[in-house]
Amino acid sequence: MKRKGSISLFVIILVLLSFLSFTAVEGLTVGGYRFKSFGEVINRGLDLQGGVSVVMEVQAEKLTQEELSSIKTLLDLRVNKIGVSETVSTTEGEKRVRIDIPGVYNSSDIVTNLQTTGELTFKDPEGNVILTGSDVQSASGMLDSNSQPVVSLILNEVGAEKFEKATTEFRGKQISINMDGEQLSNPMVNDVISGGQAVITGMSSVAEAQNLAGIINSGALPYPVKAIEVKTVGASLGAGVMGDVLTASIIGISLIVLFMLIRYRRPGFLASVALGFYVWLLLFVFYGIDATLSLSGIAGFLLTIGMAVDANVLIFERIREELVVTNDIPKAIKSGFSNAMSSIIDSNITTIIAGLVLYYIGSGAVKGFALTLMIGIVISMFSALVITRRLLWMGVSMGFLTKPEHFGVSSNPAQKKKRDFIALAKYWRVISAAVMAIGIFFTATQGLNLGLDFAGGTRLVMEIGQEFDKTEIDEIVKTYDDKAQTQVVDNTQIEVRSQALSTETIDELIEEIQEKYSLKEDSIITLDEIGASVGRELTEGGVKAVVIAAALMLLYISFRFKKNYGFAAILALVHDIFFLIAIYAVARISVNTPFIAAVLTILGYSINDTIVVFDRVRENKKLHPGLSNKEIINLSLSESFSRSVGTLLTTLFTILSVAIFVPQIRDFALPISIGVMVGGLSTFFVASPFWISLEDRAHKIKK
């Protein structure tokens, strides 16, 4: 009876998962009710739907958070007044406001509107101020009776009184109307104007009049603001990337499922079912917290899928070890979960530490990546410790898991080989030292290949829609910046990289290319404008983030283990960072904002791997007190080898799929792929040998 009940429940779970999976991807209509797909309900970031992202910096020495919040509100009003909805704005640091505007592609109009301080003044012939924007009740852009664009003003009671008095005093003279010190019009006062109405003329279009009216209505900014970063993403880029993401997801997850089935047999199938629930739960949480999913968030999402399997790998390897000495399946499952628990918790907490540092120090895309990573890690722990556990016990109840062979354990298992990993460490030291030495040489002589985020400048990618002569575009580009570089992309696209150009200059360049090839406005695929100050702050923030993350990890490991474990783990982290930088220096790979996020993610992953090994070391020191430190390490590495390889492969399956099939987030995926491989090696050949040295030295000092 119990077996039939378990089988029935398992079938229900499979049907439910199939329903949820289908609904999540395609959506479903039942009896007139629409179950929407996650693609329909989850908010998409600018890089997935297109639009403009602007970072405005307040030009003030000191600014309180209340003042910054007030300026953010005024900037929001500016954008809303020109008819743009669904704008997302956030404050960053002490003096910056980031504004994401979906569905808008003319960044120059947005920047001009936001950078205008909005100080409206009426001045008498001698330049004395008569009225200011505070005297205006409302403003609206329209066509007057002569079909000319104007801004119609309705003054408040105080303003109406001032204006009537001024037009009486200066009848027959001119009163100038100014915005931020620039004269808009200078009309002659023919009659006394009462009733609290005035008109600003001199507008070139109704759109200009409406923009000015919006600025007047939103109020003047207390300080000037400047656009230090402008990114435009064309609608075509966002539309095309989702198919690539789906392909990468299917391939990555399929490879993980295949690996789990081959390595762990029936439990691997149950873990794959749990992985399906994990993916659905993660998407459901995104929907529940109204998260905005960006390309960087997708990178984090796919990375966590690979990392989510890590806990299952840990548990299953522990269960397999128990099944070598006993055929008692329930006992092996209990022991497997019990023995793996501390490793799972400690390793995931250190990765969350890296995510928290990323979230609080990073901005924009980096925050999205960090949030996705942390949510994914928490849900992955729930998936492994609750869902997988429940499925395993269900498998036992329905007779699905009854013997060691069902876990991939042979009926006559061979003894695990005790490899001398420490003896191999000297070869890795030579390889690592050589790579770093070459990297230092390239860095000293050529420097790192700093991308736009760090070096500043302008990057424009346009779809020409046909094969073209690059020299023709070169001639156009050189008239604006003779040092600019151009590159043909996918035969029909042109990429232009130059020093930081003004918004007006960029508009002129785009218009000239569009006119040359009869292109429409949607020909712009991406447009990035980054100020030089952003790069300096990114560098400082990146170093600060790495130092803080490493310090917090050292404290945690020292608390959970001992300080020698912490120092050994941190040395491995330093090794991983310098190795990655060396690879980037030699290969001339562009270093951008995602590189910082990748480095911190690698720190979390590398420390994760190291903690699993050190947890074994701590356990084996109690079980085998007579062994030397070297023997303890070799034993622990031998026992952890299968888990380390399994985790490395499952993580690489997803992240390499992203790097190969989604070029738009390759900047995230590539360094993480390199770092994951290097991090696995550093656990075996850097952290472990260094721990032996520290422990041996401490033992000698005690003597």
UniProtKB/TrEMBL annotation:
Membrane topology, record value: Multi-pass membrane protein
Pfam families for this protein: Sec_GG, SecD_1st, SecD_SecF_C, SecDF_P1_head
Gene Ontology annotations for the cellular component aspect, listed alphabetically: plasma membrane
Ranges of residues in domain Protein translocase subunit SecDF P1: 72-125
Primary localization class, coarse: membrane
GO annotation terms (biological process): intracellular protein transmembrane transport; protein targeting; protein transport by the Sec complex
Parts of the chain that traverse the membrane: 237-262, 269-289, 295-316, 337-362, 368-388, 427-444, 541-559, 566-587, 593-614, 645-662, 668-694
Keyword annotations: Cell membrane, Membrane, Protein transport, Translocation, Transmembrane, Transmembrane helix, Transport
Domain SecDF P1 head subdomain: 128-222
Annotated GO MF terms: protein-transporting ATPase activity
Matches recorded under InterPro entries: SecD (IPR005791), SecD/SecF_arch_bac (IPR022813), SecD/SecF_bac (IPR022645), SecD/SecF_CS (IPR022646), SecD_1st (IPR048631), SecD_SecF_C (IPR048634), SecD_SecF_C_bact (IPR055344), SecDF_P1_head (IPR054384)
Subcellular locations according to the entry: Cell membrane
Membership in a protein family: Belongs to the SecD/SecF family. SecD subfamily.
Quaternary data: Forms a complex with SecF. Part of the essential Sec protein translocation apparatus which comprises SecA, SecYEG and auxiliary proteins SecDF. Other proteins may also be involved.
Cited function: Part of the Sec protein translocase complex. Interacts with the SecYEG preprotein conducting channel. SecDF uses the proton motive force (PMF) to complete protein translocation after the ATP-dependent function of SecA.
The name this protein goes by in its record: Multifunctional fusion protein
Protein's organism: Proteiniclasticum ruminis
Highest classification ranks of the organism: Bacteria, Bacillati, Bacillota, Clostridia, Eubacteriales
